[in-house]
Amino acid sequence: MGFLVYFLIIILVPLWAQFKVKGAYKKYSKVASSSGMTGAEVARQILNDNGLHNVQVEPIRGMLTDHYDPRSKVIRLSEENYYGTSVAGAAVAAHEVGHAIQDAEGYAFLRFRHALVPVASFGSNISWILILVGILASMSNLLLLGIVFMAAAVLFQVVTLPVEFNASSRAMSQLVSVGVIRNDEERETRKVLNAAALTYVAAAAVAVLELARLILIYTGMNNED
Questions:
Q1: For the chain, how big is the Rg over CA atoms in Å?
Q2: Of these residues, 80, 96, 164, 185, which one is catalytic?
Q3: Contacts of 223 (CB under 8 A, 6+ apart)
Q4: What is the three-state SS of 74-102?
Q5: Domain limits at 45?
Q6: For 42, which of 12, 93, 164, 221 could close a Cys bridge (C-beta 3.0–4.6 Å)?
């Protein structure tokens, strides 16, 4: 029964987070911002105000595919946010600019996350192979190695949290200071940003829970020996 509850949690929590972010985005993507600025214009103005004239803003296909590419110095906004004038679009655009500002300032957690990318990518790809073989073959050393690799991927998820929360905090302050949103729009904007943050919190929580479960399995395997 305990395992059933556990697996329901790790499945339902991410789904709930996705439901919340899509719901908030869908609702506020229909609410026009008072400034009438498109997401592209919002991003460009905040970038210029922060002296980041070298960072480009481009449209990209898909829904909520918005991201900042630190290698190319490009903010890519989904077409709906790039061309649209909604509160949600402005919030998302400002959030991605927040990452560009972090990059320009050498924000410590962002630099740490970038350094973790190759290790986390390799760890997430190979960890489950080692873990499954270790459990099935009752090889605790192999299981431990898989846990170590998985821990690197989990660390990446955890470090992502301050990066995302900081980007959202920067987004709110920039939107207000630039005058993109009015006081009565701050609440709506925060709802979009907070809902998006839930997906990262859920992912990190599930990753930590799974890591803890595997550590318990490893401990139990050693105790049997």
A1: 20
A2: 96
A3: none
A4: EEEEEHHHHHCCEHHHHHHHHHHHHHHHH
A5: 2-224
A6: 93
Q: Give the integer Cα–Cα distance in Å for 213 and 143.
A: 12
Total of domains in the chain:
1
* pTM (two decimals): 0.88
- Other Cβ atoms less than 10 A from the Cβ of 93: the count is 32
Query: Are the C-beta atoms of residues 39 and 96 closer than 8 Å to each other?
Result: no
Q: Which amino acid is at 18?
A: Q
CA 130 vs CA 136, 152, 204: distances in Å: 10, 14, 21
What's the pLDDT tens digit per position in 164-199? 999 999 999 999 888 888 877 888 999 999 988 888
Active site residue 96: yes
DSSP states of 121-179: HHHHHHHHHHHHHHHHTT-HHHHHHHHHHHHHHHHHHHHHHHHHHHHHHHHHHHHHHHT
Task: Using the Cα atoms of residue 103, residue 105, residue 111 and residue 112 in order, give the sign of their dihedral.
Answer: negative
Place of tokens 């026009």: 32
Give, to the nearest 10 degrees, the angle between helix 108-136 and helix 186-224: 40
pLDDT in tens, 59-83: 999 988 999 999 999 999 999 999 9
Q: How confident is the model over 132-149, as a mean pLDDT?
A: 91
The amino acid at residue 39 is G
What separation in angstroms does the CA of 187 have from each of 57, 87, 194?
Answer: 26, 10, 10
Token pair for 121: 């990518």
